[in-house]
Specification:
Order of helices and strands: EEH
Helix content: 55-70%
Distance between the termini: 40 Å
Keywords: Membrane, Transmembrane, Transmembrane helix
Radius of gyration: 15 Å
Largest sheet: 2 strands, antiparallel
Shape: elongated
Length: 39
């Protein structure tokens, strides 16, 4: 990703980016299930 003259690279390149996306999806699902169990 580029912002003007700055370039932002995800950790680990493309694989790290995919892992971060997968982790965020799994974390949101787990949090939703935990909230449903508590409430």
């Amino acid at each position: 990703m580029r912002f003007g003259n700055m370039e932002i690279r995800p950790l680990g390149g493309g694989l790290g980016c995919l892992l971060m996306i997968l982790f965020s999806i799994v974390a949101s699902v787990v949090l939703t299930v935990l909230l449903n169990l508590v409430l």
